[in-house]
Specification:
By secondary structure, the protein is α+β, with helices and mostly antiparallel strands. InterPro entries: Band_7, Band_7/SPFH_dom_sf, Prohibitin. Keywords: Membrane, Transmembrane, Transmembrane helix.
Length: about 270
């Protein structure tokens, strides 16, 4: 046999051997589970991370990601007061590792899960919970709403061997008309609070004036009770500077001499 055809035959044999050898192994990475299929039929059980043997050509392995994954979607729903509210929800979920084979066989890979199961569950849960709240209450009770949506999504995904790790509301979006109505309401509340403050301030000032008026009246009354004619005469003497008025009355007597206790002096 010529050397050239012989070398070609050897190369073909080596290539086939390489294909058979490499095709007989599969590696399942960290955070994955392998689903073994023989001629397209899913075998029971899952392949854990690591190196595994399989029959070349006859068997194949589908790798399923069992790590935490995130699905985020915005859903528009009607609130209890018939306002359109768009809620953006981010859901963290993962496949139960031991059930990766069941999930693949009944639903498909991760992309099929999101389209067929995850998004419909989020949409239905948001609509169901939103319908129990007025639009404004969705904001004031945000954490309560989030918890109820999470509970609803968890219940809907459980039959599909999926676990909900967390649910977060990242945004509420309302119609322009509703936002304007809320702003007008806030302005009206602020004006009412300002008016109440001014009213209370005026009342305090009025009360202060009444107290001051009572205090002045009491002081005047007390002063009148304590002043006697003797005190008045003493005050008049104390204020006199010792000089007599130069103008005398018609009788030649100084008008205040009698009051001051001074004897008439003839000139």
């Amino acid at each position: 046999m010529p050397a050239k055809p012989r070398a070609l035959g050897v190369a073909v044999i080596v290539l086939l051997a390489f294909i058979l050898i490499t095709g007989g192994f599969v590696t399942v990475g960290p955070g994955q589970r392998g689903v073994l299929m023989t001629w397209g039929a899913v075998e029971p059980g899952v392949l854990d991370p690591g190196l595994h043997l399989k029959i070349p050509f006859a068997q194949s392995v589908a790798k399923m990601d069992v790590q935490v994954q995130n699905s985020q979607d915005a859903e528009t729903a009607a609130s209890l007061d018939l306002q359109d509210v768009t809620t953006t929800v981010a859901t963290n979920w993962h496949i139960l590792p031991a059930d990766a084979e069941w999930v693949y066989q009944h639903i498909g890979n991760e992309s099929a899960l999101v389209v067929k199961i995850i998004k419909p569950a989020i949409s239905n849960s948001v609509k169901a919970i939103t319908a129990h709240y007025n639009a404004e209450d969705l904001i004031t009770h945000r954490d309560q709403v989030r918890g109820q949506i999470e509970t609803q999504i968890t219940a809907e995904l459980k039959p599909y061997r999926l676990v909900v790790d967390s649910v977060n509301i990242t945004d509420f979006h309302f119609s322009t008309q509703f936002v304007q109505a809320i702003e007008q309401k806030q302005v009206a509340q602020q004006r009412a609070q300002q008016a109440q403050y001014e009213l209370q301030k005026a009342k305090v000032l009025a009360d202060q004036k009444i107290v001051e008026a009572h205090a002045q009246a009491e002081a005047q009354k007390l002063l009148q009770q304590t002043i006697t004619p003797e005190i008045i005469q003493q005050q008049a003497v104390a204020k006199w500077d010792g000089h007599l008025p130069e103008v005398l009355g018609s009788s030649g007597v100084l008008p205040m001499l009698g009051n001051l206790g001074i004897t008439k002096v003839d000139r």
